[in-house]
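[Discussion] Sanity-checking designs against the backbone

I'm trying to build intuition for which residues belong where. Below is a structure token string of 527 positions. I'd appreciate it if someone posts a full sequence so I can compare it with mine line by line.
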């Protein structure tokens, strides 16, 4: 395809990376980036890059990835509850200051021959070019102006969060809850430079209001940070901060917005990154999604004969992976919103629950990367010495553990049809897609008093994951045995649900035809 002129709206990481890739694959094209802000002006603190994202970037453009890695800060991951800490060694986790990442990508784009205009805002309709790449962020003016065409949909989370930073490098990435007189706050924090860390804090609305943040947020100007919240959280997380202060950058409480669009392109204009879609921060950053969008778009432009063909191919290839990732992110978001309910779990078992929370990582896969930690968590699950947990066949071992529940004893975790058919068991058919929606809330509030609650429903994997999430809610509110029915193809998910204390027993039925999940290009295990 012969591209003569390409305009990129937005000089964030996704836009800069897309401009460089397109210029490299179409060296005769005039590729120009238009960014309304100054080159060094940005919001936020650090950007995390998981190992798989690094591999994708290396395959697409080794020079850019090496430049990013050279400016990045490696770290491990951990979770701390009270005075106990579980650490997950992971040498490939990296983070980099957002300002540094922008500077690196600006230089890489210039090296490729991209022209850049800062302090200049342009609209897609006014540009006489062959292709407009709209990488203008979560508040995309392009998406708003062409809303009738792109069909944006916005879903807002129930919890509230804010981004802040610290003036020292944490020793490792950490998830740490703190309970104050107003309720529980959870920090997702990680170092991104030798003297800086990102520090994100989230909480539920009731706690937020009790702490007075509804008032402090209303009184904070849009260009300012919520100083009252920063001082409160600095005191609350004093131990994790090791005496250092929290710093803001237009830091205000907000709710996460998940954005999706019916279409990603129209005519010569295509959306990229947050302009097209967002996914909750707990599964990785929007930056990596945008940069991976850029890779897919560049591949499509190389292979296609026309711009329209390329944009159709880009969306066809990339949309399934993004939508699947958004579904995983939705489950992760809801898990974190309900995190305080799990703080009674032994720490290593809580780490298993965290890693398997969204259905992307199995217990067996987690064991491969962190065998010592997982074996401690499974020992808590099975109430056995750590040495009794085998190094292989983890799912089989989980299912084989006995269970004592009130007057009942089960030799393993697989229920029989006799339990389902017993008069003391209530069978509940679950035929909805959210364990936290109105229908689920009604079931939780009106659950019958029974020896066992048996959750059944459609055989799809998504439906099984919803049943596991709802079972966990019911398990925490009733004294009943919680049994989830699932096809044998969901064996790994059931094992994760057992090991994470979401359910007590499982029942396997033969599955109907279940389509395979699309393969993801990336997945972040840290915030």
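Best answer:
Here's mine. Compare freely.
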């Amino acid at each position: 395809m012969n591209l003569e002129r390409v305009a990129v709206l937005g000089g964030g990481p996704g836009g800069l990376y897309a401009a460089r890739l397109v210029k490299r694959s179409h060296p005769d094209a005039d590729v120009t980036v238009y960014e309304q802000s100054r080159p060094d002006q940005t919001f936020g603190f650090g950007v995390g890059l998981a190992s798989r994202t690094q591999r994708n970037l290396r395959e697409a453009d080794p020079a850019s990835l090496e430049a990013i890695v050279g400016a990045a800060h490696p770290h491990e991951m951990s979770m701390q509850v009270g005075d106990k800490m579980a650490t997950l060694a992971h040498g490939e986790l990296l983070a980099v200051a957002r300002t540094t990442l922008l500077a690196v990508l600006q230089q890489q784009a210039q090296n490729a021959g991209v022209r850049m205009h800062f302090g200049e805002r342009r609209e897609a309709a006014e540009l006489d070019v062959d292709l407009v790449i709209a990488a203008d962020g979560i508040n995309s003016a392009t998406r708003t102006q062409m809303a009738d065409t792109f069909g944006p949909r916005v879903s807002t989370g129930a919890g509230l969060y804010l981004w802040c930073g610290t003036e020292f490098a944490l020793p490792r990435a950490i998830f740490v809850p703190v309970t104050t007189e107003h309720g529980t706050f959870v920090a997702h924090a990680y170092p991104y430079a030798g003297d800086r860390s990102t520090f994100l804090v989230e909480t539920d609305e009731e706690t937020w209001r009790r702490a007075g943040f509804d008032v402090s947020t209303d009184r904070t100007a849009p260009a300012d940070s919520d100083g009252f919240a920063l001082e409160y959280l600095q005191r609350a997380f004093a131990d994790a901060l090791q005496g250092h202060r929290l710093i803001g950058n237009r830091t205000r409480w907000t709710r996460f917005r998940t954005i999706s669009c019916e279409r990603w392109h129209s005519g010569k204009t295509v959306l990229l990154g947050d302009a097209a879609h967002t996914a909750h921060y707990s599964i990785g950053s929007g930056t990596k999604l945008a940069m991976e969008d850029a890779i897919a778009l560049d591949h499509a432009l190389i292979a296609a004969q026309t711009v329209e063909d390329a944009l159709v191919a880009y969306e066809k290839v990339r949309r399934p992976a993004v939508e699947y990732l958004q579904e995983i992110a939705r489950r992760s978001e809801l898990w974190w919103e309900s995190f305080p309910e799990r703080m009674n779990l032994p720490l290593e078992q809580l780490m298993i629950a965290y890693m398997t929370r969204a259905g992307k990582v199995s217990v067996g896969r987690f064991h491969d990367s962190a065998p010592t930690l997982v074996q401690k968590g499974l020992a808590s699950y099975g109430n056995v010495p750590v040495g009794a947990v085998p190094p292989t066949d983890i799912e089989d071992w989980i299912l084989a553990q006995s269970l004592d529940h009130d007057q009942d004893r089960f030799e393993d975790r697989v229920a029989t049809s006799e339990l389902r058919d017993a008069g003391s068991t209530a069978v509940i058919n679950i035929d909805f897609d959210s364990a936290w929606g109105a229908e689920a809330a009604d079931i939780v509030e009106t659950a019958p008093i029974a020896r066992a609650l048996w959750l059944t429903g459609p055989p799809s994997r998504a439906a099984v994951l919803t049943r596991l999430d709802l079972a966990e809610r019911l398990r925490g509110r009733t004294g009943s045995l919680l049994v989830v029915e699932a096809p044998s193809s969901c064996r790994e998910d059931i094992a994760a649900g057992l090991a994470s204390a979401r359910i007590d027993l499982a029942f396997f039925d033969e599955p109907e035809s279940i389509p395979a999940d699309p393969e993801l290009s990336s997945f972040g295990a840290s915030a």
